[in-house]
Amino acid sequence: MAFTVALTGNPNTGKTSLFNALTGSSQHVGNWPGVTVERKEGRFRSPEGDVTVVDLPGIYSLGAASLDEQIAANYLLRSRPDLAIVVADASNLERSLYLAVQMLETGIPLVLALNMMDTTAEKGIVIDREKLSALLGVPVVPTVARNREGIDDLKGQVLAELRETTFPPASFSLPYGERLTPLLDEMEAFLRGKGEIISGLPLRTAAVKFTEGDPDILAAAEKAGLREGLESILAVAGKEAEESIGYDLQTAVIERRWGFVSGVTAEAVQRDLSLKARLSISDKIDRVVTSRSLGLPIFFLLTWGMFRFTYALGDPLVELLEQLFERLGERAGELLAGAGLPDILASFLQDGIIGGVGSVVVFFPHIFLLFTFMAILEDSGYMARGAFVMDRLMHMMGLHGKSFIPMLMGFGCTVPAMMGTRILERPRDRMITLLVLPFMSCSARLPVFVLFSGVFFGSWAGSAVFSLYVLGIVVAILSAKLLGSTLFKGESSQLVMELPPYHLPSPGMVLRHAWERGFLFLKKAGTFILFAVIVVWALASFPWGVEYGSSGSLIGQIGQAVAPLFAPAGFGFWQAGVALFFGFLAKEVVLGTLGALLGAGEAGLAGGLAALFTPLSAYAFLVMTLLYVPCAAAVAAFKRETNSWKWTFFMIGYTTAVAYLGAVLVYQGGRLLGLG
Amino acid sequence: MSVSARIEDYMETIFAIEITGREATVTDIANTLGVAKATVVAAVRRLVAASMVTHEKYGLLELTEAGRERALKIYRRHEHLTFFFSNILGFERERAECMACAMEHEMDETADGRILGFVDYFLNSRREGKPWVRELLITMGDERKLPRPLSMIPVGGRGTVSRVTASGVLRERLFSLGFVPGVPVLCRKAAPLGDPLSIEVRGSEIALRKTEAASVWISPCNEELPEGGEEKSHVSDCRDA
Prior knowledge:
The structure holds two protein chains of two kinds. Chain A is an alpha/beta fold. Chain A has helices spanning 15-23, 67-79, 93-105, 129-136, 151-163, 181-194, 203-212, 215-223, 227-245, 249-268, 273-277, 281-289, 295-338, 343-361, 364-380, 382-396, 404-409, 414-420, 427-436, 446-456, 461-485, 507-541, 554-566, 574-582, 589-597, 605-612, 615-627, 632-642, 645-672; strands spanning 3-9, 27-31, 38-44, 51-55, 83-89, 110-115, 125-127, 140-142, 269-271, 496-499. Chain A has a seven-stranded mixed beta sheet with strand order 2-3-4-1-5-6-8, sandwiched between helices. In chain A, helix 4 (129-136) packs antiparallel against helix 10 (249-268). The longest helix of chain A has 44 residues, at 295-338. Chain B starts with a helix and ends with a helix. By secondary structure, chain B is an alpha+beta fold. Chain B is elongated, with a radius of gyration of 26 Å. In chain B, helix 1 (5-18) packs across helix 4 (65-88) and helix 4 crosses helix 5 (93-104).
């Protein structure tokens, strides 16, 4: 027998730790169909058969208030797993029970895991597990997932339930009070006569959810041809109930559900109030970390430190990897030439494959390090505070408090920054952040800026480079504003988030998280980057026999064809077009390409450049380099994060259009001012 | 037939004088309403034209049958509103009259009927000594107890949710975090730049932007706390309220 068990719970209840503890290393990470929300699946073996554990997104309620909720509700109601584990935070049971009660209503057999049991003692909380189990009618297992405590018990209980459900799951019925019950009875009776809204969903629950106005249930009822009948019941009995309660039905249902939860909590949980009144450690930390005077400085210091460390530790590793792949390429080239392989194959292997793999792997150290830091911030509870203190500033720019971290990361490398947008829950905030990230000047653009500025702007070089960074930020802010008020106009930004208590992050989980991210990048973005590299290699090498990337090659010909387009921006010569094209591989390649094309190598580039560019057209070229389509890796990351070719092409088009416009404006404006 | 708001006042005044058994003159009206005689004369001319009033030679004014009917309605409305403002909401008589004057012309029959129904029900309940009447009076008497948006609760302030006016996704989100009528909340702190706020509800802290917090209405608790401190002794106060 094979079983499927869903894992649900509020955010910040240690659900991920529990998932890891249950399934060990046998995990598979993918996406939910059609969306970018991550879907994790793991497995554990038992004498009865394999148990597949599906990790659902962390949610507060089984409604439709967020994409996460929709996914979880849809999965639970339509795929109906054999059992669900609800992870509850033992130190704040009331909040967790609201979801648990909704889970009970689905009629899926449940096991309640009281996680983080180790934190209850210090908070003076005593939970009567037997009473809780009796009140809810489900088995209750205490766990401390971080230390793997109670995991075997939990598995045992899950298996026992799978073998034979001890509590008949459909028997649970939440008391909705005397004023709602007649209405719910009437709707249930109606459904009993006409049929189910969603197959397998208890009729009572369907009636409750319909009364609540759950959009998913309304749509399903419409489809089943039941909506009209139910609505006519609501129009009479519902209106009556509404009038006698004094609230609308949605409020009434939810208020009763919370009432039940509060009742259960009051009966099963004892708390020592004298302990509660003392300032907790979290409060003490918060007094400093979110204080009026220190809140923002601490945030800036922490994020700046994270940024510095990522690159300070990562850069040497990247260099090492680059050298490794370069040597590997050379060695392979020699070897292949010695083996008498045709040149074309040797070039393909050396420049195409090995170069391509190399350009993917070099991103790994930064991604790994960055996600290590991000996981520490997230796991410790600081990330939410960061968003809390930054939200006002970011909101003024049309972004979200949490957008700041990926934006800052963007100065290092756009790829991990784009992956970092996962901390944003709302698709709108996330998409806007993703779309403006390419304008934050990544470190690969810096060598281009520095060299050009050195050649053309003399003692003003530093200011020129700085002005480009500022320009990037300004364009990002303006774009965020523009996108927010046009394409994303209807969707309001929202900041409603829990500030969880602080706790020490567990090293195992942090490393695991970082490793997963890095590995996923290699796997998913890697194939795209490799593909892009090979296309560029082919364009530069064919027709076979021409010098790599010269004017005779395909890319050289394309460069000549598009050169007139760049004339209004002041650099209408084919070398510039080709350099920008190669810059798609990685922006610093712009320099190498120009060096090769001007026949001087990177070292003698200065003289060659001075012959082609004027200071003004050089600046226009830098503006173009700053703003135009980010490198292949970033595009791949964007595609992976949005899971949409439509948005990917929009991003490519938008950035390129902005860049072209910027370059032309700079050149033409400069000429008008007499700088040309 | 249109009789504008201001003109209604003249009819009402004439009516008020008539029911004391006297006959109204232009001078009486000018004195009662505090306007110039010429103004009254102009108004009277319009009332006569609308056949609401007859104007005798010696300056005596008399309402026509239709005029009296109409004036009675306005007068009754005025009296109800004045009673409502003074005897139920507890305003000074003079202030109550003033507000009644301002409102009476904008109200239609339905509103009139409902207020009358409310006043009746309230008076009956008060007579029967229903406990809610006392609670209502206390609540209304204390400005600080009137519901206000959560965004206006000072740091350290407590209260209970009275209703959630947000709509759509935000409403559901607030509900699922436990902001439902009757639940106690505490405003813990504001972010360094004043927005968002951190609100304690059901044992956890929730960050909300002020615009979002404005859609949660709070009835503040009896004793509002001075900034920050001494939470201990007050915890049970609000919880038990």
